[in-house]
């Protein structure tokens, strides 16, 4: 799913995500638990303040973010 992501852009564009919008709700990135670079994109495994985990990937060639929900905490 293509996502709207607010990111910190330091010396290179889209350095790391700060928040993103999913189903009309803005979700803060509480922690980046992993990050890696692939041939054409940057990927971040992130944790929201309520413990939900997501995979955010920035495709450099398309200048677009993609999001995948990995899991949600029970009772949320």
Average pLDDT, rounded to a whole number, is 86
From the helix content, strand content and strand pairing, which structural class follows?
mainly beta
Count of separate structural domains: 1
**N/C terminus separation:** 21 Å
State the helicity in percent bands: under 10%
Describe the structure.
By secondary structure, the protein is mainly beta. It has one domain. Helix content is 0%, strand content 62%. Strands 3-2-1-7-6-5-4 form a seven-stranded antiparallel β-sheet, with no helix packed on it. Strand 1 and strand 2 form a beta hairpin. The protein is globular and about 30 Å long. The model has no long low-confidence stretch (mean pLDDT 86).
Give the arrangement of secondary structure elements:
Blueprint: E1 2-8, E2 16-22, E3 25-28, E4 31-37, E5 41-47, E6 53-59, E7 64-71
